Amino acid sequence: MNQLILTKKGNRMNLFNKIILCLTLVLMTLSLTNLSRADAHSDRLDNIESQVQDALIKIKGMEKKTKDVPTIKVGPGLKIKSGKNEVKFGGRIHFDVGLHDADTLLTCEAASDSAGGGNCVADGTNFRRLRLAMSGKYADGFYYKASVDWGASAKTIDDNEDQTSVDEVYMGYKLGKSTTISLGKQKIPLSFAESTSSNDLPFIERAPAVDIMTDSSIGPKQMSVQLRHWDKTANYLIETALHGGTDLADTDDYDERFGYTGRVVYAPSFSKSQVLHLGAWYDYTDVDRNDVDPEWSYRIGLNVFDEKPLDADVGDDLGDITGMEHYGGEIALLYDNFWAAGEWIWGAMERDGAGKFGANAGDNCSSVETNMGYYELGATINGKRRYTIKKGGWKRPKVKDPVNKGGAGVHEIGYRFNNSSLSTMCNGYDSQGQMHTHTFGYNWQLTNNNRIMFNYILATIDSDGIGELSGYTIGESYNGVTLEDTTTQDIKALGIRFQTNW
Fold first, then answer.
1. CA-CA distances (angstroms) from residue 182 to 187, 221, 240?
2. Alpha-carbon torsion 476, 482, 484, 487, what sign?
3. Measured distance CA(387)–CA(269) in Å, rounded
4. Could you tell me which residues are beta bridge partners of residue 236?
5. Distance, CA of 332 to CA of 135 (rounded, Å)
6. Region of residue 466 (left: phi > 0; alpha: psi -120 to 50; beta: else)
């Protein structure tokens, strides 16, 4: 019996051991299967990672290749870019209309009856500027610009036929992030208004005081080498230039002019749309005594006729000009939608044998001197006029609501007073005229590239300016009006400009 019991217990133990063994084999099999699957999964992950890395390498290679493929942007203008190299094609069209209502002695009827063969304030139309330009940069720092003009800026007093003029042609190199050096025909650094592009001016023309003291004497665009540095954080601009004459200077009988110019601007910025501009500039130009071109002259504020009521042909009238000195002070304020600016400019022409500027002694006019200036103010609606420290001048408002998309564009109103006098330049040189002008402006900026401008100008000219323009002399009469020393005549003018630039 005991043996039978032991035999049964042994059989049960063997069965239990077999079950344990089977379970162990199953678990081992499952473990080996999972390990095999994990290895296969890891292999697949490694394969995917390798494929991704290969794809990234191929993408980087494609990106490197496409960097040299030019990108083209059309409208308005044309811009072609390849890496750090680019070229732009642009231009501007300024089409002007001028209508005048002049007092008796300044009419064309009076001019035709003048014994002196005078001129008149004439109505007309004009392509004030008709420019095509190409500019670009290359080789990580070099840049250039070439611009030609077929508008009135290309015409001279003696030749009003259509012709082409070199407006600007220069090349330059970027010495640093905000430092450049350039060489060629370009604007020399003078005046707040001259530093503002004609595309961005708040009025159709710059103030007569600026044009009288710069355009016909020292600039604004001359053959020059120029160094510029600006800082948008510290808000200052320093620019200097060594300059000659224009590219068309007639130097067959005399040496070309040579001068140096410097301008300093400080413009503390209280916010993006609140800026105070303070600036000053100085120019000295050496002139060959045989050069009879130095003069101070300009129009009333429109450029549809070329005759100038203020016209001091100092070089031609007196001769022996050996040097010219000009300097000016600038102030401007941008406060959100409101803006204001003003300048005063001094000038002197030194004649052979004279001492220092400012002598103004004797009747031989050893130093011929004058000064004049303007102030302007205005406001914008649906936009804000801008300021750039890079040039130290205005930029027109950006249009966020253009008319071609159903918007109202940007509207701008302004007023400018200008005081110009060539009446007391030196002892022994007769007055060459005095003029005050009030200009009321309205600009409708349709888009960022299109603008319509309206200027209403009221100009008052003294007897010397009347005689300069009309040819009448003191004591002569027309239609019951006699020119006397105290006579003044008014010119009312409406100017309209249609402007596009690209």
1. 11, 13, 11
2. negative
3. 10
4. 231, 266
5. 30
6. alpha
pLDDT, tens only, 421-449: 999 899 888 899 999 999 999 999 999 99
Q: Which CATH number fits domain 71-135+143-501: 2.40.160.10, 3.90.1170.10, 3.30.43.10, 3.30.457.10?
A: 2.40.160.10
Residue with tokens 């609140």: 274
**3 state SS of 43:** helix
- Region of 301 (left: φ > 0; alpha: ψ -120 to 50; beta: rest) is left
Q: Encoding tokens for residue 7? A: 């035999």
Point out which residues pair with 472 in neighbouring strands.
Answer: none
**Would you call 7 helix, strand, or coil by DSSP?**
helix
Give 41-54 pLDDT, tens digit per residue. 667 777 777 777 77
- C-alpha 145/C-alpha 135 separation (Å) is 4
CA 236 distance to own-chain centroid = 17
Residue 76: asked if its preceding bond is cis (omega within 30°), the reply is: yes
**Count of C-beta atoms within a 10 Å radius of residue 418:** 25
Closest CA to 292 of 381, 338, 352, 358: 352
CA distance 439 to 417: 7
Of 348, 338, 351, 353, the closest CA to residue 369 belongs to 348
Q: Is 84 in a helix, a strand, or coil?
A: coil
- Write out the H or E segment, with its range, that includes residue 54: helix 2-66
What is the rounded CA–CA span in Å between residue 94 and residue 222? Answer: 22
Q: Is the pLDDT of residue 68 over 80?
A: no
Residues with Cβ within 8 Å of residue 412, at least 6 apart in sequence:
202, 378, 379, 380, 381, 383, 385, 397, 441, 442, 443, 444, 445
Amino acid type, 475: G
pTM comes to: 0.84
Range 268-298 burial, b when 16+ CB lie within 10 A, else e = ebeeebebbbebebbbbbebeeebbbbbbbb
The one-letter amino acid code at 21 reads L
CA-to-CA distance for 175 and 328, rounded, in angstroms? 28
